[in-house]
Amino acid sequence: xAAFVDRxxxxxxxxxxxxxxxxxxxxxxxxxxxxxxxxxxxxxNVVLRVDPQVTTLLDYHHTPHRRAENGSPGxxxxxxxxxxxxxxxxxxxxxxxxSGDGRIVADLVGDGTQVVLAEGGRGGLGNKAxxxxxxxxxxxxxxxEPGEELDVSLELKTLADVALIGYxxxxxxxxxxxxxxxxxxxxxxxxxxxxxxxxxxTAGDERFTVADVxxxxxxxxEGRGLGLEFLRHVERCSVLVHVIDCATLEPGxxxxxxxxxxxxxxRQYVPDEAxxxxxxxxxxxxxxxxxxxxxxxxxLAEFVRADLEARGLEVYIVSAVARTGLPELKYAMARxxxxxxxxxxxxxxxxxxxxxxxxxxxxxxxxxxREQTPEGEVFRVLGDRPxxxxxxxxxxxxxxxxxxxxxxxxxxxxxxxxxxxxxAGSTVLIGPADNAVVFDWEPTMSAGAxxxxxxxxxxxxxxxxxxxxxxxxxxxxxxxRVAKRHARAELAAERDAGFWTDPDQ
Length: 505
Known about the structure:
Number of domains: 4
Shape: elongated
CATH architecture of the largest domain: 3-Layer(aba) Sandwich
Helix content: 25-40%
Strand order of the largest sheet: 10-11-9-12-13-14
Strand content: 15-25%
Radius of gyration: 37 Å
Order of helices and strands: EEHEEEEEHEEHEEHEHEHEHEEHHHEEH
CATH superfamily of the largest domain: P-loop containing nucleotide triphosphate hydrolases
Number of strands: 18
CATH class of the largest domain: Alpha Beta
Structural class: alpha/beta
CATH topology of the largest domain: Rossmann fold
């Protein structure tokens, strides 16, 4: 039997986008065919999806590091790279995903429900897509963006309509086994139940699930015993059934004191308000006096029944071993479950519609901040677009750096730097503090196009219309041969004259 794991920390990374391709079309009788580099493919996303066949988070406990596929780079002849495959991680229903700061990312309820944890990086544009009237032959391409990387904690909260709660060895697992087809591990020692056991119960037209969760002891809300493991799994249940052992031989215990201890723990536990959970003390509760097959336990159950009913509680005397009193209990649970479902449906109908307006992906806003660091004064540029442009730039290519300068100038970044007090040679950082690009700012940064002998965006090679004849090609080839022959003769003369001789030898 596989181990049960209901809380793990995942380290996920989406796929990186593929780099764009800088290529020139080459074909016989078509010199300077123009740019034909393709775009890079998008990186794969990391997706959480509810799978009814998965009941535990054990796989992620053993292999917590997961990464999606990278996008393929673009190629020549206008061939775009393929997108990386999404990494789909199946999780049980009822899984709650939280970010590193504790914020709830997703509450996964319902078969097939899914959420994108980390988005893959965009693919870089090839030089074919970067060509324009001003820049007819770009000699560069954009790099692919890195995929998102984050840590997320997964926590499983059991989804059930009814939760059986009580002390260890109160007979909760036995009740689940006789009310449903579930076969939990049953023994006569405390804490037999270490993981939640789910069973499906049918009573008339109603069909609902019952959860047998780990036993409860005093101080459970503070983490004693399996308390927090227990209380987390009853957080979603609408009906709580107190299972009380009337045949216990432990000193100082009786049905009324057991009930008071459990009720105290329920009042102390605070459910997650972000998930819409009500306090456990406000849930519908039923009291089951178990082990009535023992004569002394039956007498005790009849004796305390009136006191429990005086508190406004429904009380049922049952025996999981003799299977007595079970039909009445089953139909009572079905009645309360039906009422809870109807109330939940009314709340959903009256609940105002939530309108989500996500921030535009191409957010044009940015800010320039003047900072003092131990190394001196710096100017930090913050914004989605400038950061993305920097990540897409190949800084080993002068023309690509010039293209970045054009983009920053058109967006108004240079103007804001001047307003902030930046001058030529000032240190400028673009991006967050943990992953920023640092450079010395020059307001008149030049691009690689100027190095080709013309204004930015032009290429003198495209304006050449003369095609050399065969005789001209032969003459050029012969001149290169003569130059090589002379160079070899000079090297031989220097060698014979001893210019290359080591004086130490």
